[in-house]
Amino acid sequence: MSTTDTARYPVPAAEHRVRDEVQRSRFLTVLAPAPTIEAAQAVVAAVRAEFPEATHHCWAHVVGPPGSTARIGLSDDGEPHGTAGRPMLTALLHSGVGDIVAVVVRWYGGTKLGTGGLARAYAGGVTSALATLPTRDRVARTTLSLRVAHADVGAVRQLLAAHEATLVDEAYGAEVRYVVAVPTAARAALEGALRDATRGTAVIREADAPTG
User: Contact at 8 Å (CB) between 189 and 181?
Assistant: First the structure.
């Protein structure tokens, strides 16, 4: 996957749930945003706490761009090895969605599904939920500090909007100081445009990302 691909990719817009029944076993698939491993683990813990009476709480997560295996995790939670977490993870890795966690809750209905049936049920639950999952774009951003002349403010603001840069902070004194967050893929183009618009007088440097 190229740098441009990883700079913008779809992620879950919100938690999403789908229910299904397979040979009297009930399944609930929960998909949710997982920008970090800790966030993924928190979703798993919350679903487990919500349905403590369920037979199994199997899960898988992909933290990072779609298809990335750098920060993955999975659990069969007592189901036969390889019949739940692995099929769920495979579905996530091929979904084209990043920063995502899936939890499939199962209530055993009295009929054994066999290893193949379990794998199909868990993968199918995730695939079905993915088909109706609302997504939004995650955009990797770089924070820049800008110093420009008052006379250039109008042109600078137009360029910020044109390059999808968001204003984080601003201060007015002898010159104007901005802190902006720009999509990483658009950084070079924005810097070049700013220098052209200000006749080379803009002072641009990378700044620490804001916290909180």
Answer: no
